[in-house]
């Protein structure tokens, strides 16, 4: 099973590298000659790549449909019961010192889960158990691991689907469509990642002298443990941060976001049911700073898997740098932040497409996606006549309310900390002479953390609104003079470093120019589509510049970051000569050695001759 993109990679590989002819699906490579083959040792696995992988189909939830009924039941199950969520280390459940609650961001009086934070001793215990589990897990056959992941995709797609969607909607404030897309992405990760692993496992070093040696490469996990710090805004990405390293032979400490703990717990349970051994992934809710300090101070740290803000990624990097001399590995740091994503509209663009895509990208999930559009650049020739009125009219009519309502476009922001941060940005905007609020700008925290979708026109590209990641329902708009198109593009490339940028145009020459202008400042570049449209296997995503490490989640490249390959060379014709032929030393040595042997054998008789008396 593999994606079309991955198939292309392997097809190219096949055309260049020699392959072993004998193979069976899910089987091992058995060498027909040499010591390894004679002893029956099996170091690598070879997979057939004939079955395609497809993205999970999105369900529609029309009134009266089976999925609608299942979801309604799951929503009532979440709302009518406060779930206790433990700390789980090597299969054992623990509790911290103080009980905490997860509440829906749109209804602060309705707790849905009780949990506690792991203290330092528990985190250290989880590390030790992870290190122990990793040694055995890394020896588990790739084919056995793949079967677990395929079983997990099946469980999440069916048995756990509605439970995870309900927890995501209520716990994280996602609307039905957004939660359905999130869980579909989770299923995609569980299906595509094993397909990518098959691709990587099939790689073979060049073997151009098969009679004299055999070269193989096996994929090993990283010795030690991986710390996974997952975000609130994507249940699917949270799982991918944890279970992609695990698939590659690593043991993982999972610190879920407090604001997504219920949905993450259901994912953890689904993976255990699928067959992930206890201890391979340990579920460790913890206070952020405490967790970061403990894991980065441990010598067995092998890597950090993170998605969040760029500022937090920098803190983690600094903590690792401070302890670099005590590690047994060079820890792998894999992190993605949202950055400053943007839509850039060319005078040739279709205004309706630009408006519709921008509203969705900026305000779906209250602008809290790592790919949410934060800035819109519009030419003067389109702004007043084509874009301004529909943009403001539609934005002001968006319904903001409880995420469980079907007519809700977006709900509350995730928690009090996010609300306070966005409130301060709105205060800054209202007091800044270079910013003008065109619609929105109001917020309310009486029942939930609600912020109206806000559009603000910015007059100066050096303003903070044009540069800083806002992670909220605030869209900055800058109207540029048509004759300053290239100048504006250069400035955008300088100040907007993000996960995704989008350009809207019908002019093919401009699109080619945009490819070059925005070559480095964003990890993904979309043409005539919103910034929030990435799908696993189709548009692998990773940030540009200081926004992240751009490891392209949802592609084979991300798997390589979690393995430490070992290359094995088996020689069938070992060297016996010390010198090279051109040195003309080897033959001389053999010749001298032969003469020496002759002298040694004749030496006694020669001495005897010398000892004879002279007659």
TrEMBL record:
One of its GO terms (cellular component) is mitochondrial matrix. Residues 590-615 are annotated as: Disordered. Pathway: Amino-acid degradation; L-proline degradation into L-glutamate; L-glutamate from L-proline: step 2/2. One of its GO terms (molecular function) is L-glutamate gamma-semialdehyde dehydrogenase activity. It catalyses: L-glutamate 5-semialdehyde + NAD(+) + H2O = L-glutamate + NADH + 2 H(+). Residues 594-605 have a biased composition (Basic and acidic residues). Residues 606-615 have a biased composition (Acidic residues). Belongs to the aldehyde dehydrogenase family. This is Delta-1-pyrroline-5-carboxylate dehydrogenase, mitochondrial. It comes from Drosophila ananassae. The gene is Dana\GF18051.
């Amino acid at each position: 099973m593999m994606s079309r993109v991955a198939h292309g990679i392997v097809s190219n590989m096949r055309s260049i590298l020699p392959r072993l002819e004998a193979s069976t699906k899910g089987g091992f490579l058995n060498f027909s000659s040499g010591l390894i083959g004679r002893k029956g040792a099996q170091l690598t696995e070879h997979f057939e790549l004939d079955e395609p992988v497809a993205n999970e189909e999105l369900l529609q939830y029309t009134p009266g449909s089976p999925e609608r009924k299942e979801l309604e039941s799951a929503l009532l199950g979440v709302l009518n019961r406060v779930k206790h969520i433990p700390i789980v280390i090597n299969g054992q459940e623990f509790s911290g010192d103080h009980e905490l609650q997860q509440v829906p961001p749109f209804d602060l009086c309705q707790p849905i889960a009780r949990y506690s934070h792991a203290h330092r001793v528990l985190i250290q215990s989880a590390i030790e158990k992870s290190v122990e589990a990793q040694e055995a897990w890394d020896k588990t056959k790739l084919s056995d691991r793949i079967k677990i992941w395929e079983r997990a995709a099946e469980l999440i797609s069916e048995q756990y689907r509605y439970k995870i969607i309900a927890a995501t909607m209520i716990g994280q404030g996602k609307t039905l469509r957004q939660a359905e897309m999130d869980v579909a992405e989770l299923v995609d990760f569980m299906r595509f990642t094993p397909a990518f692993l098959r691709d990587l496992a099939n790689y073979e070093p060049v073997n151009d002298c098969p009679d004299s040696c055999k070269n193989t490469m096996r994929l090993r996990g990283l010795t030690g443990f991986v710390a996974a710090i997952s975000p609130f805004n994507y249940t699917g990405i949270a799982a991918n941060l944890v279970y992609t390293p695990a698939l590659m032979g690593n043991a993982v400490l999972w610190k879920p976001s407090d604001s997504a703990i219920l949905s993450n717990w259901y994912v953890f349970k689904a993976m255990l049911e699928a067959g992930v051994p206890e201890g391979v992934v340990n579920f460790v809710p913890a206070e952020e700073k405490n967790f970061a300090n403990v894991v980065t101070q441990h010598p067995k740290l092998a890597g950090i898997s993170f998605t969040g803000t760029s500022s937090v990624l920098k803190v983690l990097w600094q903590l690792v740098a401070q302890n670099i001399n005590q590690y047994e590995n060079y820890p792998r740091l894999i992190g993605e932040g949202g950055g400053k994503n943007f839509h850039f509209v060319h005078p040739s663009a279709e205004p309706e497409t630009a408006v519709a895509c921008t509203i969705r990208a900026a305000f779906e999930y209250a602008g809290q996606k790592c790919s949410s559009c934060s800035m819109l650049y519009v030419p003067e020739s389109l702004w007043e006549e084509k874009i301004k009125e529909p943009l403001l009219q539609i934005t002001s009519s968006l319904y903001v309310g409880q995420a469980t309502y079907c007519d809700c476009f977006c709900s509350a922001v995730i928690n009090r900390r996010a609300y306070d941060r966005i409130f301060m940005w709105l205060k800054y905007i209202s007091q800044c002479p270079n910013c003008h609020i065109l619609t929105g700008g109001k917020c309310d925290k009486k029942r939930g953390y609600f912020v109206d979708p806000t559009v603000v026109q910015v007059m100066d590209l050096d303003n903070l609104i044009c540069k800083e990641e806002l992670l909220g329902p605030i869209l900055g708009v800058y109207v540029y003079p048509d004759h300053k198109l290239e100048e504006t593009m250069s400035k955008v490339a300088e100040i907007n470093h993000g996960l995704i940028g989008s350009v809207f145009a019908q002019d093919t020459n401009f699109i080619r120019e945009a490819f070059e202008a925005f070559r480095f400042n964003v990890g993904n570049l979309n043409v005539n589509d919103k910034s929030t449209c990435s799908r696993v296997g189709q548009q692998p995503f990773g940030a540009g510049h200081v926004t992240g490490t751009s490891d392209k989640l949802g592609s084979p490249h991300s798997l390589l970051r979690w393995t430490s390959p070992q290359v094995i060379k088996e020689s069938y014709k070992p060297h016996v000569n010390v010198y090279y032929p051109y040195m003309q030393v080897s033959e001389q040595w053999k010749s001298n050695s032969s003469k020496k042997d002759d002298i040694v054998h004749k030496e006694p008789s020669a001495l005897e001759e010398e000892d004879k008396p002279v007659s």
